[in-house]
Amino acid sequence: MNNTEKLIAEDLLSIKAVFFRPDEPFIWASGIKSPVYCDNRLTLTSPKVRNDVENSLARVVKEFYPEAEVLMGTSTAGIAHAAITAHLLDMPMGYVRSGAKDHGRKNQIEGKLEQGQKVVVIEDLISTGGSVIEVVNVLREAKAEVLGVASIFTYGMKKGIERLREADVKNISLTNFDCISKVAAEKGYIRPEDIKRLIAFRDNPSDESWIKSGNV
Predict the structure, then answer these.
(1) Residue 1 needs a FRET pair 20 to 30 A away by CA distance; which of 57, 88, 109, 114 works?
(2) Nearest Cα to 152, choosing from 169, 127, 173, 132?
(3) Quick one: CA torsion of 55, 61, 62, 66, rounded to 10 degrees?
């Protein structure tokens, strides 16, 4: 766990952008029961956390993607983060819609993007990786060179890791599920013994045995 991972984990927990509830699981749209709820949009309403997140994203771009020429946010959660980070770096930005508009110029990519430009995608959350890979594919089809992704938080799910690898997409996250679970235990948001249950969920979300293990 490095300093940035711990800082962002503490930030997200403090504003309940990432909220653990292993004994009363949340239910995802897919029907999967989850011990964690994520809403990184809340970072925008906390000036301190927002400052930490955007400055950390800017450092990631400079350190891991020094050749970047433009930032592209995912729609909709990544747009504000891409805009603020681009402002800090004095770089152009745009965003990619989930689908092309059905009117006007029928754009799916908003903002100026030249063929061959080196792009970094800004994403708030990565779970199975499907959404961000769709964005990368749209940019590649537009003949952009996608250097990779900078995201706030990643689950590190096996499916997501494999998808990103197969799509040849590099991702650098500010913090991750394992780190935030450890910090949550240290700060008293969850019990230390809950970490094993959380990791069991992360490793296999469809297996609900982790829920019962807390009552043994």
Answers:
(1) 88
(2) 173
(3) -170
Put simply, whether the predicted model's pTM sits higher than 0.90 gets the answer yes
pLDDT tens-digit series, residues 125-141? 998 899 999 999 999 99
CA distances from 91 to 43, 67, 76, 139, 205 (A): 22, 12, 20, 17, 38
Cβ neighbour number for residue 196 with a 10 Å cutoff: 12
Cβ neighbours around 203 below 10 Å, total: 12
Q: Tokens 């402002």 correspond to what residue?
A: 87
Question: What are the residues whose beta carbons fall under 8 Å from the beta carbon of 39, sequence distance 6 or more?
Answer: 16, 17
What is the bridge-based pairing of β-strands 70-74 and 36-38? unpaired
Compute the CA torsion angle 153, 124, 150, 161 (nearest 10 deg): 60
Q: Which residues are registered as beta bridge partners of 74?
A: 96
Say which DSSP state 103 is in. S
pLDDT digits (tens, 9 = 90+) for 98-122: 765 444 455 799 999 999 999 999 9
Length of the chain: 216
In sequence order, the 6+-apart residues with CB closer than 8 A to the CB of 201 are: 34, 35, 36, 210
Name the amino acid, one letter, at 131: S
Other residues' Cβ atoms within 10 Å of the Cβ of residue 98: 12
The burial of 206, by beta-carbon neighbours within 10 Å (0-12 exposed, 13-18 middle, 19 or more buried), is given as exposed
